[in-house]
Amino acid sequence: LLEGTVFKAAGGFFSVRDENGKEYRCRARGMLKRGKAALMVGDRVLFEPNLSADQELGDGMIEKLLPRTNLLQRPPVANVDQLAVVMALKHPDCDWQLVSRMLVLAEKEKLSAFVCLNKKDLVPEDERLALSGQIEHYPYPVLCTSALSGDGIEDITAKLRGVCSVFAGPSGVGKSTLLNAIQPGLFLKTGSISNKIKRGRHTTRQAELLALESGGTVVDTPGFTRLDFTGIEPGQLAAYFPEFDTLRGDCSFRNCMHITEPGCAVRREVGKSVNTMRYGHYAYFIEELG
Ligand SMILES: Nc1nc2c(ncn2[C@@H]2O[C@H](COP(=O)(O)OP(=O)(O)O)[C@@H](O)[C@H]2O)c(=O)[nH]1
Ligand SMILES: [Mg+2]
Ligand SMILES: [Zn+2]
Question: pTM here?
Answer without folding.
Answer: 0.93
